[in-house]
């Protein structure tokens, strides 16, 4: 399976060219009518997507691809199925003191901590593609910038799980 953001629209050969479908960019939702070519673009945020506020029960150290495209994706599915009722607070473990590089937390804030995971693989011997809007992250922050928020989360009686997957870059 490939995980990540799709940057192209794949035509559904079975449905023909008259389907309306969506294509996902980093922080926008694109709806493209394949018959007319008409495109509608909306910013991905809580004003364009319905969300469920969940209590933050998981403090996650790291905001990398694996955590977002696997761990937070699984939490999102578990929340949807009613197995969990847990929101995630993502703690970015590093900071660029000169702010030369836009951090992942900055990008996540632009879309209210929501993003898409694109899966492509084989299921029951048939090719399958799936796009899921992940909405399990309730907050994201950098403890070097907002230590009070960090302290509030790790002292919270709601906190049940801590996840970490930092690499040598995050230590």
What does this structure look like?
The structure is a single chain. The radius of gyration is 18 Å and the shape is globular. The protein is built from 3 helices and 9 strands. The model is unreliable at 1-27 (pLDDT under 50). It is of the alpha/beta class and 171 residues long.
Helix coverage percent of residues? 10-25%
C-alpha-based Rg, rounded: 18 Å
Total strands: 9
The span between the termini is 29 Å
How many helical elements?
3
> How are the strands ordered across the major sheet?
8-5-4-9
Low-confidence stretches: 1-27
Percent of residues in β-strands: 25-35%
Mean pLDDT score, rounded? Answer: 77
Order of helices and strands: EEEEHEHEEEHE
Helical/strand content category:
alpha/beta
- Profile the largest sheet: 4 strands, parallel
What is the molecular shape? globular
Keywords:
single chain; 171 residues; alpha/beta; 4-stranded parallel β-sheet; 3-stranded antiparallel β-sheet; 3 helices; disordered N terminus
Topology:
Blueprint: E1 20-24, E2 28-33, E3 39-43, E4 56-61, H1 65-81, E5 87-91, H2 104-110, E6 115-123, E7 126-134, E8 137-141, H3 147-155, E9 161-164
Parallel strand pairs: 4-5, 4-9, 5-8
Antiparallel strand pairs: 1-2, 2-3, 6-7
């Amino acid at each position: 399976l490939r995980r990540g953001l799709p940057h192209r629209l794949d035509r559904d050969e079975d449905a023909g060219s008259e389907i309306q479908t969506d294509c996902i960019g980093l922080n926008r939702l694109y709806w493209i009518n394949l018959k007319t070519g008409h495109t509608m673009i909306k910013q991905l945020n809580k004003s364009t997507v319905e969300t469920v506020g969940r209590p933050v029960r998981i403090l996650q150290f790291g905001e990398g691809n694996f955590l977002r495209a696997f761990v937070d994706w699984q939490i999102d599915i578990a929340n949807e199925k009613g197995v969990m009722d847990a929101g995630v607070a993502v703690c970015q473990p590093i900071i660029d003191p000169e702010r030369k590089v836009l951090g992942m937390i900055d990008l996540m804030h632009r879309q209210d901590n929501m993003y898409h995971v694109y899966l492509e693989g084989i299921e029951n011997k048939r090719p399958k593609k799936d796009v899921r809007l992940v909405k399990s992250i309730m907050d994201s922050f950098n403890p070097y910038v907002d230590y009070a928020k960090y302290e509030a989360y790790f002292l919270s009686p709601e906190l049940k799980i801590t996840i970490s997957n930092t690499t040598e870059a995050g230590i």
